[in-house]
Specification:
By secondary structure, this protein is an alpha+beta fold. The protein is 29% helix and 29% strand. Strand 4 and strand 5 form a beta hairpin.
């Protein structure tokens, strides 16, 4: 069973490992199709259109080991990577989880429900609740 843990607000590249800096650049590219470095993505300049606002990073753990790194940004978007890599395995679009791997999607969706990260109005909320063995 996977769980979202260790939530942190990200406001500067100085907070990131080199892999996480690459991840945030990939998050931005997934969001707006622009190839910009992490420091531009996390710029404090309000005129910078590349800013990924409301940026936070979560660890997703199973059996107390990190499995994924989950980024949430722009209030309704996100990207999920295999821990310690730049391999994007899922995305958050308009607050909903998108994943090509059914088993992984159920694991992540159930973990998002348990963490309160998936809105109850999401079309997959009930399915992920069932996967998490939770009642509405």
């Amino acid at each position: 069973m996977a769980d979202f843990t260790n939530r942190r607000q990200i406001t500067s590249v100085a907070q990131l490992t080199p892999i996480q800096a690459e991840q945030i650049a990939l998050c931005g590219a997934a969001y707006d199709d622009e190839d910009l470095p992490a420091d531009r993505r996390l710029s404090s300049d309000p005129e910078d259109e590349s800013v990924l606002s409301f940026c936070e990073l979560w660890d997703v753990v199973a059996d107390q080991s990190p499995v994924y790194e989950a980024w949430f940004y722009q209030s309704d978007s996100g990207s999920i990577f295999l821990a310690g890599t730049t391999e994007m395995v899922a995305q958050i679009m308009q607050c909903g989880l998108e994943c090509d791997d059914e088993e992984r999607e159920l694991e992540l969706g159930a973990a998002m429900v348990r963490a309160g990260l998936l809105p109850s109005g999401d079309s997959e909320f009930e399915r992920f609740c069932r996967a998490a063995d939770e009642t509405l």
